[in-house]
Specification:
This protein has 349 residues and is of the alpha/beta class. It has 13 helices and nine strands. The chain has one domain: TIM Barrel, CATH 3.20.20. The longest helix is centred in the N-terminal third of the chain and has 19 residues. The structure holds S-adenosylmethionine. The site of S-adenosylmethionine (SAM) has 20 residues, from loops.
């Protein structure tokens, strides 16, 4: 039996087998087989629903210096902004009126947003929008901080691990950051009862199938409720400005593989995928993705949350164009769902 069938029958492979799987999936027939199985599983657990989350990029101040990221602290040309509590609540209110029931608050690691400020913010959102889910994506913090934010009402937390290979992590990040700490944060978040999203960039500098195999092993161990997987896209003011972008086609294969590895996972068709290919979103759904995160940030600020070059933030990417987005999703054969869209529960066993 080939590695593709072996993986479909028993998805937890060894590192070397993942490398063989990735190699085998270069064959279009093998990629199609993986996509078909991924679709079967996404339909089994989620039907034809594509869940939407309203993304609010509320600060682009960041104390970190990740080599790939356009809002790294060394980028002196980034125009920094920070939304006030009132502005963030207005974004949520606009989203609530459009029908959004999940808000993702994402930002750089901005020390101005202390635990106290985030607690007040989370409580206000929960009060103004009863029943909605609040997702945080504000990087690495202490256990105590995660605990306080959870107690204030945060339901979910997105923290991509970026790469599960130690050596590769060091190539992408400054010396003061570590993979061990990032992983520890993810396990702490899980222990505190957050629904957790991990994930990685595809095609970041120095990445080979061996690194991707580490990512798959790690996702199999962590079992996050969500996995954010998108291509690396260079930013002109970073040390990686001349590096090639990650491949859309490899991203799609990885979406299928992760859907098979974690059948109930929530898998976004990411903005980076849409940026690299005008049909990236649709292709993502066909590969097993089932989440979209349209942008709810104030229109005037969107360009400033400049993680990589040409990042989409208008058109179907914008939350206010929900009707267009709905049409597009339906044209691709899916149904836009405004429900909270929690990860499907394990059924027995
Ligand atoms: N500060 C938080 C954190 O570290 O998780 C959230 C914000 S961070 C900017 C969000 C994500 O953007 C990162 O996890 C990373 O994967 C992605 N990102 C940053 N630069 C990118 C690039 N050049 N290409 C693709 N994705 C990028």
């Amino acid at each position: 039996m080939g590695v593709v069938e072996k993986f479909i029958q028993n998805p937890n492979l060894e590192r070397e087998e993942y490398v063989a799987l990735l190699q085998a999936s270069e064959e279009p027939q093998a990629a199609a087989r993986l996509a078909a199985e991924a679709l079967r599983l996404r339909r089994k657990y989620y039907g034809d629903a594509v869940y939407v989350r309203g993304l609010i990029e509320f600060t682009n101040y960041c104390k970190n210096d990740c080599l790939y990221c356009g809002i790294r602290r060394s980028n002196r040309e980034a125009q920094r902004y920070r939304l006030s509590e009132g502005e963030i609540l207005s974004c949520c209110e606009a989203g609530r009126r459009l029908g959004f029931r999940t808000f993702v608050l994402q930002g750089g690691e901005d020390p101005w947003y202390t635990d106290e400020r985030l607690e007040v913010l989370i409580r206000s959102i929960k009060e103004n929008c009863p029943g909605c889910a609040v997702t945080l994506s504000v990087g690495e913090r202490s256990y105590e901080s995660y605990q306080r934010l959870r107690e204030a009402g945060a339901d979910r937390y997105l923290l991509r691990h970026e790469t599960a290979s130690d050596a590769h992590y060091r190539r992408l990040h400054p010396a003061e950051m570590s993979l061990a700490h990032r992983k520890q944060c993810l396990y702490q978040l899980k222990a505190l009862g957050y629904q957790v999203g991990a994930g990685f960039m595809v095609g970041s500098p120095g990445q080979t199938y061996a690194e991707l195999a580490e990512d798959l092993v790690f996702l199999g161990e962590l079992k996050p409720q969500m996995a954010g997987i998108g291509p690396f896209v260079p930013h002109h003011n970073t040390p990686f400005k001349d590096e090639p972008a990650g491949s859309v086609e490899l991203t799609l294969r990885l979406l299928s593989i992760v859907r098979i590895l974690l059948p109930r996972v929530l898998l976004p068709a990411t903005t980076a995928l849409g940026t690299m290919d005008p049909l990236g979103r649709e292709k993502g759904f066909s590969a097993g993705a089932n989440v979209l995160m349209p942008n709810l940030s104030p229109a005037g600020r969107r360009r400033q949350y400049d993680l990589y070059d040409n990042k989409l933030c208008t058109g179907d990417e914008a939350a206010e164009s929900l009707a267009e987005l709905k049409k597009r999703v339906e044209a691709a054969g899916w149904r836009l769902s405004m429900e909270r869209g929690d990860a499907a529960e394990e059924l027995g066993g």
